[in-house]
Design brief:
The protein has helices at about 20-35, 55-65, 80-90, 110-115, 135-150, 165-175, 185-190, 215-225, 230-260, 260-300, 320-339, and strands at about 10-15, 40-45, 70-75, 95, 120-130, 165, 195-200, 310-315. It is α/β, with parallel strands linked by helices and about 350 residues long. It has two domains: about 10-230 and about 305-339, Alpha-Beta Complex (Spore Coat Polysaccharide Biosynthesis Protein SpsA, Chain A), CATH 3.90.550; about 230-300. It has an eight-stranded mixed sheet with strand order 7-5-6-4-1-2-3-8, sandwiched between helices. Helix 1 runs parallel beside helix 2. It is elongated, with a radius of gyration of 25 Å. The two termini are about 40 Å apart. The chain binds uridine-5'-diphosphate and magnesium ion (MG). Magnesium ion (MG) binds near residues 99, 101 and 103.
Length: about 350
Amino acid sequence: MNVDLVTPEVSVVIPVFNERDSLSPLLERCLAALRNMPSSFELIFIDDGSRDGSREMLTDAAGKHHEVVAILLNRNYGQHAAIMAGFAKTRGDLIVTLDADLQNPPEEIPRLVATMKEGYDVVGTIRKDRADSAFRRIASWTVNRTVQMATGVLMSDYGCMLRAYSRPVVDAMLQCHERSTFLPVLANSFAGQTTEIEVTHAAREAGESKYSFWRLITLNFDLVTSMTKFPLRILTVGGTVAALCGFGAAIVLMGLRLFYGSEWAGGGVFTVFAGLFFLIGAIFVALGLVGEYVGRIYDDVRARPRYFIEEIIGSSENSNSPAATKDVAHASLARTEGA
Ligand code: UDP
Ligand code: MG
């Protein structure tokens, strides 16, 4: 029997961007953990435009192991777009994502799968003894609190990518055409039953984090703008309150001026200026925020493909065949039409 033709039960999706030094141990540990599971599986790596030899290593691995598929994107599109490219090729009923840098131990996958089989749509994870810098931890804490407040969905850790999704949730995510997505939050908007389990977390051993300060800011804006219009509402309400206060203050100042004379009003000018500067600052923040939304709307209106697949190795569909090429063209066309 050709093993490739059997539909696997579990699909594991791992985005890779310049992770040369982690790849060998990652592959070994993943295969060991997954082969110990009673379920059949496929291991999908997406190379997100690496330039350090990761591509070649993944191509090799896909040739050697029949469970491994390597999807090579033609350039760097970002972690979440890469995962989407992987999702589009998954065949399993259960889909697990994790990072390639071994911060998420592959040995936890069977536990995630077992929890999913209890009937959940999404299983998130909470990082026990999180091994990241204080700055990253504070950033995550702020993000998690904001998401909880804005969505009312109570998951305590959205930052950890070691997560499991059911087939319908992944299919629903694949139908979302917006470019700026933050997958864990997107998944929750389609999930009925969700839960979280505690997993261990390791420090990054090789290479460095792919998220610079600016990329983190972009990611966090993606997260906020993709899930809620709440900040825009705060702007409207805040603006109204500020305008009313300004109007009230103007009346009071005019009244007092009549009462105390113009001498007094001259002294009050600075108070007015202070208030004015505050409001001008607030307006800039507000404009920036509106700009974040408008920029994303612009991206979505242009509806460029989220990623472009150069080659797929190790899949039952051979990427070099005309059918597969058509599939890629088809996918981008569908996206254009859908947006
Ligand atoms: N990654 C990616 N494309 C990118 C940035 C990151 O595929 O543009 C992958 C990276 O290889 C890793 C995962 O996403 O597998 C998480 O990245 P990283 O460990 O740098 O993030 P952190 O743990 O610092 O949040
Ligand atoms: Mg990491």
